[in-house]
Write a structure and sequence with these properties.
heterotrimer, A mainly alpha (269), B mainly alpha (270), C alpha/beta (284), A: 269 residues, mainly alpha, MetI-like fold, 76% helix, B: 270 residues, two-stranded antiparallel sheet, 10 helices, 78% helix, flat
Amino acid sequence: MAQATTLSGRQWSPPPLIKNPWVRWGLILGAVIYLIFALSTLNFDPARVARGMQRSGRLLLAFLHPDFTTRGNLIFTGMLESVTMAAISTVAGFIVAVPVGFGAARNLVPMPVYLVCRGLIALSRTFQEVIIAILFVVMFGFGPFAGVLTLIFGSLGFFSKLLAEDIEEIDAVQVEAIRSTGASWLQMVSYAVVPQVLPRMIGLTLYRFDINIREAAVLGIVGAGGIGSTLNTSLRRYDYDTASAIILVIIALVMVVELSSGWIRKRVQ
Amino acid sequence: MPVLESSGIKTWQWRNQKQTLLEYAFWLALLLLMFACAKFIADRTTWGFVLDAPRQGREMLSRGVPPRWDYMSQLWRPLWDTLTIATLGTALSFVISVPVAFLAARNTTPNLLVRYIALFIIVGTRSVNSLIWALILVVVLGPGVLSGTLAIALRSVGFMGKLIYEGIEEINEEPVEAIRSTGASGAQVLSYAIWPQVITNILGVTIYRWDINLRESTVVGLVGAGGIGLQLDASINTLRWNQVSMILLVIFVSVFISEWISAKARQALI
Amino acid sequence: MLRIDSLSKRYPTGDMALKGVTLEVPDGQVMALIGPSGAGKSTLLRCINRLVEPTSGSIWLNGIDLTRLNTRELRQARRKIGMIFQEYALVERLTVMENVLAGQLGYVNFWQSWFRKFPQATIDEAFRLLDRVGLSDFPDKRADALSGGQRQRVGIARALLQNPELLLVDEPTASLDPKTSRQIMRLINELASERGLSVIISIHDVPLAQMFAQRIVGLRFGEVVYDGPPNRLTPSVLNEIYGEEDWNASGPAQDSEEKRSRLGWSSHPLRDPLQKSVEVNRSQ
């Protein structure tokens, strides 16, 4: 399509991100209107924010002299409880998740089983752990037992979904190859499915442990065990020094777990 | 691969002796650890309540089903608040985490000190759960949607910042070199060669986090930070299970919709 | 005119990539830089526009010592040096036009570049160049939707939009098929003579270099071992540059060692079909 027309004075501007001008302007207008509405509901009270600045200043300062000793005992047992909860929930959650994960893989099980398992996973993933924790606290009483069940339920959704996806994506050819040797369903699973799926699962277990530690620290706020209740109490009493100590301990713990899990995962790979 | 030979006959085992021993030792240790944990938890459990749980559960279920449909009229405003918390919180996080991510990435950071500060911000905000942030902010700023929004924003900075800076470090450096060779300034290199490579990732991460934030926004109300969590807290405290089930249903539907939106939007980005 | 004076580059690992290279490239000359991998060809090119910092020596471009410039002055100097890359180095998500316009980034401020508000004269020139390299149909196509040859042309247009005094070309044909390679080399040559441009092309394809360059410089282990016209590249000269090789043979190798390595077999006894298998021997 060679043109002999003059090429000077030809206008050019970069192509817009969204081609359709209606869609583009519609989105922009919609976003602006939404922002105006949303910001108006924020109740931005300058006086309150000013007071808040003062208090947050005091809280920030408290980080400079955190108090680990006054409530040291409570902090220690609380953290221990949180870590224990996380540990046992991760392992138990993984164990429970295996059958559910298999049951949620379309290429392995019949439809009703598939639907039930997928439904369970959906419930687990939709609701935040805290909500589940409150319900379990009502059922099982205050304390870490409810917390452990909560974390198991949460880990279930996490592991099962990924496991099911991995299984569904399995190289069908490999499965066929094993099947053609006359192996039983269980043998097929352990020879063709597990080796492909297992290495990633181990990495994911460490990752989930990290998440569970963070969750376990929080569940105490609703009474499901762990350091959360101590944190709640100290904050409500404006005991900033203790609160900052607890927060620092939580951050330190989470970082340690993250670093070591990253190290372990590299070694295992 | 462990091939062993004994008296001239070659055999094959999945693992050799030392590996097998290590493996057994590991599993044993894990088992013992789990027993210790279980005992620790069991000691702190009031078994009376646990045994009572099935009855409790049945009661909750019977009182909760069917949900109280007319409660919905009182839930619209809290639902809107929850959406506000999630959306404004994600937007605020975007504004903070993008520059922080650029400062934290090895290839775009001006110097080492700044890089470590940026990484510290990201790691620090990641380790603290949004509910804890909400707790702190309610104590500091008072209850309300503002506290919830800031709590969500702060937690998201860590999440988004990490994914974004990792994306920045993975870009193709060749076009960056090429743009630099034309005599472009540092800012121009950033905007012309780096930004187009990372923008898809940044938008994808933002939408992904928005979806997660909607879930988290539903619970910040439990500590007073606005949203439907306030209703949930009130209903549970007064044991109105049919209201609780209504709220849970509303949450389920909202999360379902937001996941659908998020998946569609991220597909459109590619 | 480009003058390189005792240019040396030592990497932190201790490797001397360049050892006292001295060269002069007059205006309008197309010079090909040949040599084995690791000889320092890419390093030499990148030292000229200081994408890689030389350890010692000086580089004079039309009377200015590039090695002595500060950051701002270096940016201004770079505007006059166009560079074409082996893997095209285009920003994939941007359009062809945006990639070409990047050549003038050194002449606009930040906001102009962000909003892509280049002067009309620049846009006119960009369209002219696209037409010249044969891509006038594609200004708004995304760069990653193009073929290798097309992408390289965009790279060429970008470099030429700078209206450079010197063109540095780094293995322009390494990722292209033979026909496209010749088209690209021809295009570079034509453009160089149209504009009286000095060009340094680092290239590994020796016959291609001989076909299109006026002067060949051979580099080995960071030193210049040949500097002359293409027709004096005898096999012995090539041996000096590249090492021992039968430059005239075109059939299968007679030597079994080379046969194995050519066909991808290692010399491991257990996997060497030219030798009797070890297991068979042992069981006997």
